[in-house]
Amino acid sequence: MINDALHQGQFALPIPYYNSDFPVVQYADDTILIMQADITQVLHLKNILSLFSASTGLKVNYNKSSMIPVNVSTNKLNNLAAAFGCQVGSMPFTYLGLPMGTTKPRFEDLTPLMDRVERRLVSCSSFLSYSRRLQMVNSSISPIITYAMCSIKLPIGVIENIDRARKQCLWWGNVEKKRGGNLAAWSMVQKPKSKGGLGVINLRLQNDALLMKQLHKFYNKVDIPWVQMVWFKHYPMKVPHASPEVGSFWWKDILRLNVLYRGISKCAVGDGSTVTFWEDLWSEEIMATKFFVFFSFVRNNNSSVQELLNVDDLDSILHLPLSSQAMEELLILQQELVTIPYNADQKDTWSLIWGSPIYTSRRYYKMVHQYLQVSPIFRKLWSSKCTQRIKFFA
């Protein structure tokens, strides 16, 4: 109904360059509508909600509804809220258990999340054995904070506070007499069991692994609203990781993970707009390493593949004159550029080094620990344990 009203001219998109349906975020009975601070549009919205209520029997609770201002004066906001019949709220506000606002969540804004963790982990841990406490830490903590880690970069203080609760549950539960030193270093506890640890999830690593899924969608230009909006708004002719930081705190936190993401991925060039020519892996070898002498004469190290393949005058991108060795590398480079399957009508495709175009946080988490050194003593015990299991099943 709202989109029909948009097409009829009753509404205007709050973000003019965002060419799509009206921005509505909805989960179960929680709905967020982003709209212009215009009294006419507010009255149109209330009329639509009244028609929807009359046709379905579902009623809107205006007493629980709030109007959140974004660069709106107090007087205008009060008039709009009075016309709509709702309360006046402020940022940050809570949606699906997370603080929503234009600034990065503070430590106190995430206190409810930490409180839920402590209530869950400490409630019955004193009645469990060590192995069951370990199982409780692994099975109870993830469902509580996984959604938060998928959405935002958690501050270090929040992760340390949650780790403190997990240590308390694992080592001494609620028993006051047992309070003292831990039985093992927390860094060892967070290693996988096959590497000599207890398999407790490393929250910092897991947070990065989950957020990189958003970065994978972004670099592949997946057809979802936020990806298209960020590309259109901030990077129409620029490579994101080769440009100054712009945008919201959320996007800056996501983009800072590009170093990790580019270390586990490779770009198959389409139009070449998402990858730098010299320092990204889009060919068999990084060009800055392969042609290091010629690279020293380049003016702009952050040029995209699209920019360099469409350049008309090499003099504009080089510091002249070239040395004899740089000239030899230039001739080799020109021969290789002819063989590049460049297609200006096709977008770039980023795939992972484990041979799949699909990114999974679990696969990345496992890959990080893949080459972790294991104590020879533990390796011997682990191999003997596996041998015993094989004999038992045999």
Distance between the termini: 65 Å
Give the number of DSSP strands.
8
- Helix amount, in percent? 40-55%
How do the strands line up in the largest sheet? 1-2
Principal-axes shape call: flat
Strand percentage lies at 5-15%
Given as residue ranges, the uncertain stretches (5+ residues, pLDDT < 50) are: 386-394
Number of domains: 3
Round the Cα radius of gyration to an integer and report it: 27 Å
Structure characteristics:
394 residues; mainly alpha; 3 domains; two-stranded antiparallel ribbon; 8 strands
List the helices and strands and how they pair.
Elements (H helix, E strand, L loop, with lengths): L1 H6 L16 E4 L2 E4 L5 H18 L9 E2 L6 H11 L2 E2 L4 E3 L2 E3 L10 H12 L7 H22 L4 H16 L14 H4 L13 H17 L5 H10 L14 H7 L2 H6 L1 E4 L18 H4 L1 H4 L9 H5 L14 H15 L10 E4 L8 H8 L7 H18 L1
Parallel strand pairs: 3-4
Antiparallel strand pairs: 1-2, 5-6, 7-8
Q: Summary?
A:
The protein has 17 helices and eight strands. The protein is mainly alpha-helical and 394 residues long. The longest helix has 22 residues.
Describe this structure in words.
The protein folds into 3 domains: 2-90, no CATH class; 94-216 and 365-394, no CATH class; 265-352. 46% of the residues lie in helices and 7% in strands. β5 and β6 form a beta hairpin. The strands form 4 sheets. A two-stranded antiparallel ribbon has the order 1-2. 19% of the residues are buried. The N and C termini lie far apart (65 Å). The protein is flat and about 75 Å long. The protein has 394 residues and is mostly helical.
